[in-house]
Description:
61% helix, mainly alpha, Arc Repressor Mutant, subunit A, three-stranded antiparallel β-sheet
Amino acid sequence: MSxxxxxxxxxxxxxxxxxxxxxxxxxxxxxxxxxxAICCHLANGKLRFGExxxxxxxxxERMLTLQLRKMEENKLxxxxxxxxxxxxxxYELTPIAQQLIPIINQLAMWGKEHKQSIxxxx
Length: 122
């Protein structure tokens, strides 16, 4: 996963779009398969790292860790560490991220309809 250099034209264009368009800003936060998948699983409540990993079997532990850190940085999830042995860490959607749940449900309905329309040749 490469990081765009802040001095690059690509970075500047992306920054300009996210500054000027709230929709693009929103998609930049939840875009990508892993962030949205994590949100879908956390929509039902708190989960431990291992539980998330089991529910998203194709994600590597490293990628899950990176995504959760990014989501925490973007205020989409909160991370709670309990002083157990071994340590227990739970993740949950923040209140602002919980507002995504109806939008995610709407995306699911749209996706289902789109798949059906394509399979019917519409």
